[in-house]
């Protein structure tokens, strides 16, 4: 018997699939706007018409209006009459003159990751990284060979980590019981600079490859913290970690395979005093591996970036800490998709 319209199954639409499949078009439009300085220029000028903005940025007249209006449609710019201006969101996070600026992190996504992600299919088939270290197997040495690329990488890591760093720095009840902290993989020292603003009783040491020393020292001195923060050069793969009451592994564990993760956590355990704490924070996978899409996509990024790294769940991280001897572990949400796992020795 034929069924009437009311009995028909709801019509399905391919809109989501098409939007997802072409999502790179919106992403690249946004990243190109960051690269071209659209948001910086509008922050300086307060608003410009299409002709003036295009002329200032060196954008061809053929593409200018569509480009700027696409940014309006994506919710990244406002347009009043013919004048374009930043939204409250882009003004807050993409004005280089503000401490909340995250543009360097997005610039790294544009100049490094966007191209490397074109090799995802190859990475999935081969299990091999697709970045600067795809031949040598040593991503960080490849990045650090170019001082400017290394500087951008360090700034990017700090900026993209800042929501979690802010949340971590505000844990006063936790920090008041400690006096020293070591940031493992400290980069430009951003975590220590931010942490000591909220917790001035602490002294800190940054541990990273020797190539980070100059930038670290310059940024720490500029923040007026040179007497409270020092740098120790080393390679966490081969060297012992600095001793401190608290060791921080920020966005570090996902870079390593299971055996290397265990070795790193064991080194941290050995460097801590009784009662000391290890803090590991990153986008941990949710325990059911189905809801934290950001963490799962970042784990695919680790496939592209490293020879053997992979993200883990907070529960897996806690089990690892307990395996090497930490007597107490817990996990806490920090910001966005990121959490921290704390182990007490």
TrEMBL record:
Cite the Gene3D superfamilies for this sequence: Vaccinia Virus protein VP39, Winged helix-like DNA-binding domain superfamily/Winged helix DNA-binding domain
| UniProt keyword Transferase present | yes
User: Any keyword Transferase?
Assistant: yes
Q: Which CDD domains match?
A: AdoMet_MTases
Q: Give any single GO term for biological process.
A: methylation
The entry's protein name is: Methyltransferase
Ranges for domain O-methyltransferase dimerisation: 19-94
- Native species of this protein? Streptodolium elevatio
- Molecular-function GO terms, alphabetical: methyltransferase activity
Instruction: Give the matching Pfam families.
Output: Dimerisation (PF08100), Methyltransf_2 (PF00891)
Indicate the segments forming the O-methyltransferase C-terminal domain, all copies: 117-327
Keywords, sorted A to Z: Methyltransferase, S-adenosyl-L-methionine, Transferase
